[in-house]
Amino acid sequence: MKHLIKTEWQKAMTLPRLLLVLAVIFILPTIQFLAVRTGYEFYRPVDVHTEAIGSVIALLFPLLFIILYANSYAVEQKENFITYAKTRVRLSHYLTAKGIVNAAVVFGTAFLMIFLPFVFIVYIEPAIGLVSYFTRRQGVVSVGTFEPFLRYGTFVYAIIYSIWVAINAVLYATAAYVLTLLIKNSFLALSLPFLWYFVIDFAIAVLGYPQFSMTSTVFPFNIIQQPLWTVLVPFSINLLLLSALVIYTKTRFEKAVYDYAE
Questions:
Q1: Are 231 and 148 in contact (CB under 8 A)?
Q2: pLDDT digits over 193-240, tens only?
Q3: How many Å apart are CA 195 and CA 259, to the nearest integer?
Q4: pLDDT per residue as tens digits for the range 55-109
Q5: Is residue 53 within 8 Å of 117, Cβ to Cβ?
Q6: Phi-psi region of 261 (alpha: psi -120 to 50; beta: other; left: phi over 0)
Q7: Strand partners, 198
Q8: What's the rounded Cα separation, in Å, for the pair 173 and 190?
Q9: Fewest Cβ atoms nearer than 10 Å: which of 1, 57, 102, 258?
Q10: Phi–psi pair at 134, nearest 5 degrees
């Protein structure tokens, strides 16, 4: 398995994919930062960070990570590489290795997409002076649900929140990957987690419980501060659905997908 993961990792780290990863990490946060650094009232650097990683990034969140490596099986199946791979390794191990690498690529990318802008905005930008800060006044809105972690320091907050976003990104990207094992139409398979993200958000808005929306539990900056347990509700639902999807794939398609090649 270690050899398969190493080989898959080498296959994943192509120049086009590295450029795509760098684009996700740097381009959108940079564009958003440049767009919000003026014309807004900021009282502390962490407020700037919430604006730099919200909006467009929150809107496109699952898509940004599904496109990284979730379609690797679909591409190899289309090129008949899976048939060749089945003659050399157990297919279940091969597919598991691809899933692990997909999760690793997504986790690292999502973590850095949140953490690196935070380091720049909170620790570097104040010395440069790109953003003007106003004197703090009574009733300034917090950064949301994860505000309590700021009492332990900005660095602790950055690590915890970056990990949280990265874990959620892995859930969506892994679901997309597993769906490509089940659905021949890879475009549909990759689109379903993204559609789920939007459909649930719409349903939650209609029902009047924004604190449980997919967007607000990953990027909790557009609503008032909520108890920490609220973010675990949609997360737990996504985790249960993904677990059920994986179990279904391993049992229903055991002979078709996970068998030894003759």
A1: no
A2: 999 999 988 888 888 888 888 888 899 887 777 888 989 999 999 999
A3: 32
A4: 889 989 999 999 998 888 777 777 665 655 655 667 777 788 888 999 999 999 9
A5: yes
A6: beta
A7: none
A8: 8
A9: 1
A10: -95, 160
Return the structure tokens found at 154: 């900005």
Tokens representing residue 182 in the block: 């089940």
> How far is the C-alpha of 27 from the C-alpha of 141, rounded, in Å?
27
Assessment of whether the complete model's pTM goes beyond 0.85: yes
